[in-house]
Amino acid sequence: MTQKTPSDSVPSGSSYRPYYSYAPEMKPIENVSRNAAASAPVTPAAPAAPNAQAARPAPRPAPRAAQQPPAPPAKKSNKGFWTVAALVLILVVFVSAIYIAADGSSGSISSGNKVAVIHISGPMYTGELPYGSGYAGSDSIAAHIRAAVDNSSVKAIVLRIDSPGGTGSCSQEINAEIERAQSSGKPVVTSMGDQATSAAYYVASQTDYIYATPSTITGSIGVYTVHYDKSAAYDEAGIDVTMIKSGEMKDTGADFRPMTAAEEKYLQSVIDDMFRIFVKDVAEGRNMSYEEVLSLADGRYYTGNAAKENGLIDDFGNLYAATDKAAELAGLNSYTLYYPDNLTLSSLLF
User: Gene3D superfamilies attached here (predicted)?
Assistant: First the structure.
C-alpha cells in the first residue's frame, strides 16, 4: 500500500486545492477611467470646427486573460494490466485442462502402466490439512494411497517422505492404507528426502523397500510427551484454579499444578505401551527381531549411512531410483509417473 507523504495531504479548512489555482481579482479599466474623469475639473468645451471629424475615444487596452488552472494529470489506464491477467488466466486453465486430461501423469497421455508418487511433507497429524500448509494430514495422504490402489492404471506406489515425524495415530492410519495396497498386489516403496524420523520412519518401515541418501536423517524410534508446570506463573498472576473432576487421573497433565508421582507413573505406562507397538511394527516391517529394533530404539537419529548398516533402510538412491524399484517389483518394463497430489487449478479453487 502506497503511503502519502506530508506534502500530499491537505489540512482540513485549507484554501489549497490540488491541481487548481486562482488569479487575483482585477478591476475593469473602464471603471478606472470613469472615476478619473469624475474627479477632473470641468472646463467649457471649445466650439467644434466646421467640417471637423468627431474625435474618437482612445482604444481601451484589452483586458488580461484570466490565468487558467493547470489540467489534472491524466489517470493511467489499467486496461493493459487486465488484458495480460486475462491471458495468463486462460493459459493456466488450458494447461490445467491438459494436466487433468492426462490424469496427472508425466510424459505422454496414457492409460497404461503408472507409478504413483505421493508426498508426505512436514509434521504429521491426523485429519485433513490444507495442501501446501507445511503439514501432512493422514486423511489426504490415506485418500491418495487409496485412490492409487483403486486406479487400475497404477501398478505401484512411491512415498516421497520429508518429515520430522508426528503422531503415532497419523502413522497408523497411513500404514493401514499401505497394507491395503500391498494386499492388492501393488508394491509400495519409500524415497526419503532430507529426513524421515520418528512417525515418518514408522510409515517408511512398513513399505516394501526404502531408499535414502547417505546424509538423510532417519530413525529416532521412540515416543514422548511433555508436561509444563506453570503453577508459579499462575501464583504470580494471582490466578486460583479449582478443578472438579470425575476421577483421580482426569486432570493428569494440567499445567496449573505440579504433576504427582502417581500421574507420572501412569503417563510413563502410556508412553511405554505406544513404544512397544512402534518397535513391534518396525520389526515386522523390516523383517528384524523385536530385540534388534529395540537395541536401536533409544530415540537417537541415524544418518543414511548408519541406517543402512543397521538395517533400517535398504539402499541409497533418489526418487527415480525408488520409482524404478517400484516398477521392478510390479513387473513393469516401462511406466509413466503419476502425481495424484500435484497442485492444480481445481485444487486452488475448490
Answer: 2-enoyl-CoA Hydratase, Chain A, domain 1, 6.20.330.10
CATH code 3.90.226.10 for 98-220+300-350: yes
Domain ranges of the chain: 98-220+300-350, 222-287
From the list 184, 250, 289, 295, the catalytic residue is 250
Q: Which of 198, 205, 220, 325 is catalytic?
A: 198
Entry pTM: 0.69
pLDDT band at 92 (very low <50, low <70, confident <90, very high): low
Alpha-carbon span 293 to 132, nearest angstrom: 34
* Residue among 86, 30, 32 nearest 60 (CA): 30
Express each pLDDT in 101-138 by its tens digit. 444 444 333 458 999 999 999 999 999 876 667 899 99
Is 250 one of the catalytic residues? yes
